[in-house]
Amino acid sequence: MSDVKNITSKILKDAEVERDSILAASEDEKNKIISKRVNGAKALESEILSKAEQEGKSKKDRIISSAKLKVRNDKLAQKQSVIDGVFDEALNKLCTLSEDELSNFIRRSILSMDLEGDENLVLNHEGLKVIGLEFMDSLNADLKDKGLKGEIRLLKKEGSFRGGFILEKNGIEINNTYEALISSLRDELEFEVAKVLFS
């Protein structure tokens, strides 16, 4: 009987040792899993924070860059507006030439051109008030003196431009309107005008 008791006691002790060993191993495994998960969560947290920080910095840089670009574009638009105003003012001043200045401009321009001398002269409403037959006779005489035909005709139809003139023959036009002259000079003068205005 005491042998049975000893055996039972031994079995119970072995079971307790086994239980304690299993519980210790289980606790160890639990701690390892928790530690692994905590470390994984910390790594993920660090990765997420780093990514968020990079995205935030990148977004901030994009916003700053976009704002700088907008400011630069606004400045350029303002400068362009001022330059446009300068050329518009030049056109307005040309349109207020006196009758003598307009006559001299037309005469000098036509006499300096390479033409045959039998073209049609097109003027706007204001030009038709200033240029008459006497001017045309004098101009044609000057053209003949240069060895040209001297048969330029003044058309009575008004041109739809602000000032200057057009010479036309057989559908080909020589555009000497103020608008065309300012436009052709603008490309070469715009940089100089900008330097004067903004330096």
Automatic annotation (TrEMBL):
State the Gene3D superfamilies in the record: F1F0 ATP synthase subunit B, membrane domain
Q: Which UniProt keywords apply?
A: ATP synthesis, Hydrogen ion transport, Ion transport, Transport
**Family classification:** Belongs to the V-ATPase E subunit family.
What does the organism's lineage look like at the top?
Bacteria, Bacillati, Bacillota, Clostridia, Eubacteriales
Q: What is this protein called?
A: V-type proton ATPase subunit E
Read off the InterPro entries from this record.
Answer: ATPase_V1_Esu (IPR002842)
* Gene encoding the protein: atpE
Q: Which domain of life is it from?
A: Bacteria
Q: Which organism is it from?
A: Clostridium hominis
Q: Which Pfam families match?
A: vATP-synt_E (PF01991)
Q: What does this protein do?
A: Produces ATP from ADP in the presence of a proton gradient across the membrane.
